[in-house]
Amino acid sequence: MDLPNYYEFFNPIKINSGENSLNTLSYELEQLNVDKPLILTNQMLDEIKNLDILLESLASTDISPEQIIKNIPNQATVEIVKRCADKYNKYNCDGIIALGGEAIIDTAKGINLLISEKSKSLKDLRGIDTIHSKMEPFIIIPTATGTGSEAALKAVITDDQFNKNLEFISNKLMPDLAVIDPRMTYEMPPRLTASTGIDSLVHSIEAYTGLQRNPLSDAYAFSALKLIGSSLKPLVKNISNKYHRMAMNNAALMSGIAFANSRAGIIYAIGDACEKISGVSHGDALSIILPHGMFHNLKFEYCRNSYQDILLALSGPEKYSNTPAKDRAVIAVAEIATLLNELQLLTGIPLTLSEIGVKRNDFPDIIEKAMHNTAVLASAGKVKREDIESVLEAAF
């Protein structure tokens, strides 16, 4: 890549990654001056004993039942954020630990917003860089790979009263610490492992081809792609493999860091719009759109050059060197399509939008939604409505 004239890169998160890395938590709480953390999780993670593992790691810390909220729903909402923030104040908590996936992490970010800004309404804080106060100490322990939410500077919280999503974007939403302990993801079944792995793959590819890419985001994205190329399919075949599980956990984190700094592109914009308009799974939508969005991007030399590197990262030096330079970008897209087909045979992930319930009459609204997604601004070329329609038709 050509070195940009100017770029920004931000990642203030301390990362503790590895087998039994949760055992560092008492020390980290001490370093953050946290004596009484509010712990957020859900019923399923309680039932599969992830919460028990967390609490065992905090045996030297006095954790009372009122500090633990086990009923965080699968979607972050204004109401649940307010109730949790009230509990935080009631029991004089001094930090937040989010154990879970994107909904729990976004809920924790919302709580931190309300508490730190001493606000009564999240609606007053929505938007970009609206946070002016010092945030409360915040730790994330992800239990699902793929979203990279532990490294994201964004939160989406639903306002059920007005049936709309509130978006919050700020570097201050990032946690002080992310603990990547593979024990937290051992229970992920093959289908979910495949879907979340593809989510990380999309983040890495979009970060590596976005117009805001830079040498640092490239380093994270390329490293994530190498791990995904060597570990995703083997992990789906054997979900008990600790090495490949750890590799995918780290790939999710690194792709999230790259994505947060390089931004997204047309693939993410269309996938996100499909989720919002048709109510389909975020991961499924992205995995279906991925090869078709990449094929669309082949028309741009900027992306073709990047895709050559993606072939090297995913398929290794032998495949790369045996492929003529002029064909490497096209073969990279073909390799992605082959991987998706193999994962479909192994786990049943969908390959078309029609399979997951997207209707053709949804297309106008999806196109409108995607065109207003800021991700299209960082995508190669000037994205037009007909470009999005073409990708949707190919993916249908």
Number of strands: 9
**Main sheet: strand order:** 1-9-6-4-2-3
Q: Output the CATH topology of the largest domain.
A: Dehydroquinate synthase-like, alpha domain
Q: CA-to-CA gap between the ends?
A: 33 Å
* Percent range of helical residues: 40-55%
Tally of separate domains: 2
Strand portion, in percent? 5-15%
Taking the sheet with the most strands, its summary is: 6 strands, parallel
Q: Structural class from helices and strands? A: alpha/beta
Tell me the name of the CATH class of the largest domain. Answer: Mainly Alpha
Uncertain segments: none
Describe the global form.
Answer: globular
The CATH level-2 architecture of the largest domain is identified as Up-down Bundle
CATH superfamily of the largest domain: Dehydroquinate synthase-like - alpha domain
pLDDT averaged residue by residue: 92
Radius of gyration: 21 Å
SSE order in H/E notation?
Answer: EHEHHEHEHEEEEEHHHHHHHHH
Counting DSSP H or I runs of 4 or more residues, the number of helices is 14
Family: Belongs to the iron-containing alcohol dehydrogenase family.
InterPro entries: ADH_Fe/GldA, ADH_Fe_C, Alcohol_dehydrogenase_Fe
Protein name: Iron-containing alcohol dehydrogenase
Organism: Halanaerobium hydrogeniformans
Detailed description of the structure:
GO terms for molecular function: alcohol dehydrogenase (NAD+) activity; metal ion binding. The strands form 2 sheets. Strands 1-9-6-4-2-3 form a 6-stranded parallel beta sheet, with helices on both faces. Strands 5-8-7 form a 3-stranded mixed beta sheet. Helices cover 51% and strands 10% of the residues. The protein has 2 domains: 171 residues, Rossmann fold (3-Layer(aba) Sandwich); 206 residues, Dehydroquinate synthase-like, alpha domain. The protein starts with 13 loop residues before the first strand and ends with a helix. The chain has 396 residues and is α/β, with parallel strands linked by helices.
